[in-house]
Design goal:
extended
């Protein structure tokens, strides 16, 4: 029975001895068998490959041995290929979207947050103690468990051996041998698995900082020393004090008189020498500056001799073959370093010195307002301005006085107006302020007018606040008078008369009639043109529905008393007869028109500049349908032409742009044709000839325009009948 039990235990219930050894042998054998099989398969594959021809694709490159042996190096970069390269973010500082140049190239493939505790810390020591105590207790428990398992398995094996008692003697012998082997290989107790330390065992730790102890510091100064003094004063003591003071004064006067007269004469001579030296220095500086200015002009005339020769003598002979078309010849470019970021906002020629003109600098962008400048250039010295004036606000308009050419009226962006005197200092002689009734919006145009009844100088200004103001120059101040307030028609609410509100219009330009003093035109941001009078401030004489956008410029014809011209940002230039509500001529220039100006030598010639950097010159007597010259005069890179003006004598125009440049251009002969003389007669230069020339053109258009007005039922608004008849 014991032998059978041992045999049966080894066959069925001996996992510790038989089952532990067999898997190890089988794993090693299987590994060796797999290696042998793989080597045999490789040999077979090599043998099979040696017997068959390799098949190459038809598009495979045939390389030489040198090319095959050549090493090709590739550089691996740490840049992330999936990182975006065109990230754009909004810059609040520059108010625009900016591209980000630096992109984060780091790519995270795996991240793990650890919880390591140093062994030297208190927590590390506690965990080490727990691990050692757990390892000592584990062998005792495992030995007890194995003894209980062997007892249970022994009882089961005895029951099985009784049922198998009929086996042969050979089996009993083998059972004894197996029992002996089982006794020799007793099952070893399994080592207990170490318990893993809980890595997520978070502990709360707290610390408290020390509070600084409060300290009180105090200081005490020594008390001020007090001293009591008392005395009695009577009239005699006061009298004696005055007498002593008078005696001291007399002694000082005697000492001064006792000085020798020679010393006094020397001191007087020294003072005279100082004054004479200062006067001499100022005179010398004036002489040197005048001489230096003359030398500068001479040097410029030598260096720019070609341009000066073109200005005086060049006539483009190719105009004869251009079919009445003309060109503009660039001469000089006037620029100053401090005005590169400012736009040309106004140009005006001096009425006395025909080569001198003033340029105002500012900005039309209300978000980028800065200081302004007023410069005066001459055609004799294009390299540097003759006069330089700076201002806190941008200059928006200016005008020379006809009788006093050294006085310049200037309007600013902040609503102020000022008078600059070229003979005085570099500061304005007169300037408005909030108390003196300055405008609340930018001043877009100023114009000198005739003296008032008291023979005081006065000028007018128009602004976006809807006010047209007359300014009178007194001895020490500017006195203002509101001539008229622009109101938008049709905007008054239907309320009682006491509660009616009028919306003020925004004036952008104006011009006074050349012969009728009280008559003037006003252009507005709404596109309307108002015909106004100085004598009536309550209503307009007439209203022209001129343009769909703001009227940038309006100007009377210098010869014809009924004709005026206007331009707008709606791409159009229109010529009007102020007695007719519809325009005589309309020209679409395919871009916003910044300025328009009549030529001083002809009643039918005018020039206009557009925002696409082109200058257009028209002559109605030659071609009343299109311009004789359309030419790009400045670079188009973020630039626009703002103003244009004809020279009163020379055949040139000056054009200003947004980059602070002023370009002088000469008109070709086709753009300044004068009336031809008949045989045996001289050419008449009387203004009546120019008036008749323009009147002839207007008669061709005037009757159809009147018919359109009658068909449309357009009636002029009510106005003073006396003035209407005078016009």
């Amino acid at each position: 029975m014991p032998a059978k039990a041992d045999k049966h235990r080894q066959g069925q219930g001996g996992p510790s001895g038989g089952r532990a050894g067999l898997p190890r042998v089988s794993r090693a054998a299987s590994k060796k068998r797999d290696d042998d099989v793989s080597t045999e398969a490789g040999d077979v594959a090599d043998a099979g490959a040696g017997g068959k021809a390799l098949i190459k694709p038809p598009d495979q490159l045939e390389l030489t041995e040198a090319e095959l042996k050549e090493e090709i190096t590739r550089i691996l970069k740490a840049d992330n290929p999936h990182a975006p390269q065109n990230i754009v973010r909004y810059s609040f500082k520059e108010r625009a979207y900016k591209r980000i140049s630096h992109v984060n190239q780091m790519a995270i493939h795996f991240s793990y947050d650890g919880n390591l505790i140093p062994k030297d810390s208190d927590e590390g020591r506690r965990q080490c103690m727990k691990a050692t105590t757990g390892a000592e207790k584990a062998p005792d428990e495992t030995s007890a468990e194995t003894s209980e398992e062997t007892q249970v398995k022994g009882e089961e094996s005895t029951g099985d051996t009784q049922a198998a008692g009929e086996e042969t003697a050979e089996e009993s012998g083998t059972a004894e041998v197996a029992a002996a082997a089982g006794d020799e290989e007793t099952p070893r107790p399994k080592k207990p698995e170490k318990k893993l330390v809980n890595q997520f065992n978070f502990t709360e730790r707290a610390s408290m900082t020390l509070n600084n102890p409060l300290q009180e510091k105090a200081c005490q100064s020594e008390p001020i020393a007090w001293k009591d003094f008392s005395a009695t004063v009577n009239q005699w003591e006061i009298y004696d004090a005055y007498v002593e003071h008078i005696q001291k004064m007399e002694k000082e006067k005697e000492k001064e008189k006792s000085k020798p007269q020679a010393i006094e004469k020397e001191e007087e001579k020294k003072k005279e020498r100082k004054f004479t030296s200062l006067e001499f220095q100022s005179n010398e500086i004036a002489k040197i500056s005048k001489a230096a200015k003359i030398m500068e002009r001479v040097v410029n005339q030598n260096t720019l001799d070609d341009i000066i020769q073109d200005f005086k003598y060049f006539e483009d002979e190719s105009d004869e073959y251009r079919d009445q078309k003309g060109t503009l010849l660039p001469l000089w470019t006037f620029q100053y370093d401090k005005t590169k970021r400012l736009a040309v906002t106004a140009i005006s020629w001096n009425p006395k010195y025909k080569d001198l003109f003033a340029v105002g600098y500012g900005s039309y962008d209300f978000m980028k307002q800065s200081q302004g400048m007023l410069l005066l250039y001459t055609l004799k010295n294009p390299s540097f301005p003759e006069y330089i004036f700076s201002s806190e606000s941008g200059v928006m308009c200016l005008d020379f006085h006809n009788d006093y050419p050294y006085l310049i009226a200037v309007g600013f962006y902040d609503g102020n107006v000022a008078i600059y005197n070229l003979k005085a200092t570099f500061q304005p002689s007169y300037k408005s302020c909030a108390k003196s009734g300055k405008h609340t919006e930018p001043v877009w145009q100023v114009k000198w007018q005739k003296n008032d009844i008291d023979n005081n100088l006065n000028f007018f200004s128009v602004s976006s606040d809807g006010r047209i103001v007359s300014w009178t120059l007194l001895r020490n101040e500017l006195v203002h008078t509101d001539v008229i307030k622009l109101s938008v028609e049709g905007t008054t609410a239907q309320r009682p008369e006491e509660l009616q509100l009028k919306i003020l219009g925004c004036g952008t330009s104006f011009d006074f009639h050349k012969k009728i003093d009280y008559l003037f035109l006003v252009g507005t941001e709404e596109g309307k043109i108002y015909k106004c009078s100085k004598r009536h401030s309550s209503q307009f004489l007439d209203v022209f529905e001129a343009h769909h956008m703001a009227v940038d410029s309006v100007s009377w014809n210098p010869y014809h008393s009924k004709v005026f011209i206007s331009c707008s940002s709606d791409w159009t230039v229109k010529i009007w007869d102020h007695t007719i509500k519809t325009p005589m001529f309309v020209y679409d220039l395919n871009s916003g028109v910044g300025d328009v100006a009549w030529a001083p030598y002809s009643s039918t010639v005018f020039a206009a500049v557009t925002t696409d950097c082109k200058a257009h010159v028209f002559d109605l007597s030659i071609n009343k349908y299109e311009a004789l010259c359309t030419q790009v005069v400045v670079t188009k890179k973020k630039n626009k032409i703002t103003h244009v003006q004809f020279n009163p004598v020379h055949p040139v125009i000056v054009v200003g742009d947004q980059r602070g440049h002023v370009i002088c251009l000469k008109l070709s002969p086709n753009l300044r044709k004068m009336p031809k003389a008949k045989k045996g007669q001289e050419v008449e230069k009387d203004p009546e000839v120019e008036i008749a020339k323009l009147e002839k053109l207007l008669n061709l258009v005037r009757e159809p325009a009147k018919q359109r007005c009658e068909q449309g039922g357009a009636a002029a608004p009510p106005g003073p009948p006396a003035e209407q008849t005078q016009l």
